[in-house]
Amino acid sequence: MATKKLAKKKLLKKTVAKSKSTLIKDAKKKTPANKKPTSSKIAPKNPPVKKSAAKNVSVKKTLALKKSKPEPKQSVLDTKTLPEQKKSRKNAKKTTIVLPPPPKIDVSNYPKHKIKNVLISQPKPADPDKNPYLEIGKRFNLNINFRQFIKVEGLTSQEFRLQRIEILAHGAVILTSKLSVDHYFRMCNEMRVTVPDSMKFFCINEQTAYYLQKYIQYRKRKIFFGQGTLIHLVDVIRKNKDEKFLLPVSDVHKEQIVEFLDELNISYTKGVFYKTISADLSDVKSLNSYDLIVFFTPAGIKSLKQNFPNFKQGTTRIAAFGHTAALKVKELGYRLDIFAPNPLNPSMSGAIAAYLKESNKR
What gap in Å lies between CA 182 and CA 175, rounded to an integer? Predict the structure, then answer.
């Protein structure tokens, strides 16, 4: 009996061993050769990651963060017009100010006789070395004389009040010359108006802007300047379109400035601060002794007519700078021989030099 029990135990051990070996063989067949059999050990919490895998994970994280970020809130109107706004921004161009073209000026074909004596209707220059007309005189051997045909007088406070302009109701001032600077601050003093520090000044050029130092501290004020015309101040004026502008001018001024401001659709007031009147020219004996007379303003030509009503032009050439002055020459019955600015000569001195090259070439 004991031998039978031992034999049964041996058979059981053999069957158990066979079953274990068959199970291991089947498991090896099922798992591929590349894959390692899973170990019974617990894997670490932060397993090492390959570099390429780390990059992919970082990219996935950034994308997930972008998606998770909330989009900016938009109003109902904004969401409706958003695609149209994007198109308009791409196709939008800066709106340019289109002013009416200046009138055409016809210059006479009068024979270009030799010029020797020239009268410039301006005051004598303080620094003769930097005057372009004296340089032309040396170049062409001319006799250059200076005599101002007009004088400027400021309006009294009583005359200014008749315009019913409140200076402090304006937050910005447009200054087109040094004269406008002088008479603006003169009128403020006469009317006992203190110009606030918040006042903004828009000057036609840098020289006019620096001239403000005569009356105010330059660094503590908001001062803007162009390059000779108000067109260079378009962007700055538009940024301050909520301000009410004051334009100090003479009784005789360029209407083109007013047209320019109308085109900008800003709120402004044009105020006359000074007036231009004819000067007394009794010290000038005869104008016929001059071969060329140069004018820069219509008021100067008007002064010519008032002081010399019997003047006949004859061989005397007349030069005019600016369209309004040129039109005034023809309006009063005179002949226009030289005009500036023109496409070839933007300055008066350049136009005179070009004329002298032909008239004095012999």
Answer: 10
| 50 vs 294: CA distance, rounded Å | 88
Distance CA 40, CA 233 (A): 82
Question: How many Å is the maximal CA-CA distance in the chain?
Answer: 169
d(CA 269, CA 249): 10
* Residue 158 CA: distances (Å) to CA of 164, 173, 191, 257, 273: 10, 21, 9, 26, 11
**What pairing do the DSSP bridges indicate for beta strands 268-278 and 245-250?**
parallel
Determine the distance from the C-alpha atom of residue 84 to the mean position of all C-alpha atoms in its chain, rounded to a whole number: 28
The amino acid that residue 44 corresponds to is P
The answer to whether 232 and 226 have CB atoms below 8 angstroms apart is yes
| Tens-binned pLDDT, residue by residue, of the chain (362 aa) | 555 556 656 666 666 555 555 555 555 554 444 444 444 444 444 545 444 444 444 544 444 444 444 444 443 333 334 444 444 444 444 555 555 677 788 899 999 999 999 999 999 888 878 899 999 999 999 999 999 999 999 999 999 999 999 999 999 999 988 999 999 999 999 999 999 999 999 998 898 999 999 998 877 789 998 877 777 888 888 889 899 999 999 887 766 788 888 888 889 999 999 999 999 999 998 899 999 999 998 999 999 999 999 999 999 999 999 888 999 999 999 999 999 999 899 899 999 999 999 999 86
Of 220, 221, 167, the residue nearest 189 (C-alpha): 167
Ramachandran category for residue 200: left, alpha or beta (phi over 0 → left; psi -120 to 50 → alpha)? beta
CATH numbers and ranges of domains, the chain: 117-149+285-359 (3.40.50.10090), 153-277 (3.40.50.10090)
* Type and span of the H or E element at 248: strand 245-250
